Amino acid sequence: MSSFNFDMLASIYDATRGYPRDVALRIAQTLDEASSAGPQTRFLEIGVGTGRIALPLANLGRDLTGIDISERMLAQLEHKLQAEDWQEERLAWGELPDEQGQPQPAWGKRFQRTEPDAHMRIAVADVHHLPFAAASFEVIVAVHVLHLVDDWRQVLQEVRRVATPDGMFLHCGDEHGPSDVQEVRAQWRRVLAELGYDEQRLYQPSDADLQLACAEFGWQAERWIALTWERVITPRQVLEGILQRNWSSMRRVPDAVFQEGCLRLEQWAYAYFGAGIDTVRKQEQRFIITRYSAQLQDQ
Questions:
Q1: Model confidence, pTM
Q2: Residue 297 — very low, low, confident or very high, per pLDDT cuts 50/70/90?
């Protein structure tokens, strides 16, 4: 399985995965606090996408680099930067210390703003081969990325290489609270299993696998629910998200299996929810942070 490129989903990414503005700001503040960040802290987000995490964090007055293999996702981020009055910096690639002697990305740009002073560098790059020198970043952030890559262990080696000796890796993701709308996704997994396709294999590494791999670097894990909020959603919205292949896992299911699975799922959903398929439900959302750091060993 090769790394997943979000070019095909760039135009709908924020509509299907974006956070409410206040939630995005709270996530940024939480990550900033988890990093004990200051003006000199250098952040790297791998799989930065449209900047739903990176831009609010940089807006706090941080120095942030984001890389992604999708040019269209980065184009969305560039539009956001321009809309928020970030100014492009005219500086050739290779002029900064962490770029010297490293492969030049196919595309890259730099932006800056004042009040507060902040810098953002974005580039098309493969997370398996980061175009930066060793020990370049105090904080590396990954949100829903490692299950999308070809070789997560190689990516983790790269993360460790570019992290400073006392740096940290913030591995983050979302979780859903209990709600019957989650039964739609559960049934989708059951339908795929009936058709001989194990969707769970797309979600690697497990938390246990990642903790073991990080322990080899001397990194210990600390995991917590960093933020909770509430959203409203109907079972039909979850169903249509699957039928329209809005999620990467659906895009990786073979077409024949996907089409048959959708027929079965749609039939089940109307029978299971009945008239309630359009009834709004409230669901708790959670943002989870696992911080990997050598410093934890001394606490």
A1: 0.94
A2: very low
Task: Locate 19 and state its tokens.
Answer: 């956070």
3-state secondary structure labels for all residues of 234-297? CHHHHHHHHHCCCCHHHHCCCHHHHHHHHHHHHHHHHHHHHHHHHCCEEEEEEEEEEEEEHHHH
Mean pLDDT over each residue of the chain, to the nearest integer: 94
Give the total residue count for the chain: 299
Write out the two tokens for 93: 């690639």
Q: What are 74-105's pLDDT values in tens digits?
A: 999 999 999 999 999 988 899 999 999 999 99
- pLDDT, position 295: 61
Region 225-251: what's the mean pLDDT? 95
| Integer Rg of the chain from CA | 20
The full 3-state SS of the chain, as one line of letters, equals: CCCCCHHHHHHHHHHHHCCCHHHHHHHHHHHHHHHCCCCCCEEEEECCCCCCCHHHHHCCCCEEEEEECCHHHHHHHHHHHHHCCCEEECCCCCCCHHHCCCCCCCCEEEEEECCCCEEEEEEECCCCCCCCCCCCEEEEEEECCHHHCCCHHHHHHHHHHHEEEEEEEEEEEEEECCCCCHHHHHHHHHHHHHCCCCHHHHCCCCHHHHHHHHHCCCCEEEEEEEEEEEEEECHHHHHHHHHCCCCHHHHCCCHHHHHHHHHHHHHHHHHHHHHHHHCCEEEEEEEEEEEEEHHHHHC
Structure tokens given for 155: 């990516």
Strand partners, 290: 171, 223
Would you tell me the crossing angle of helices 152-162 and 207-215 to the nearest 10 degrees? 40
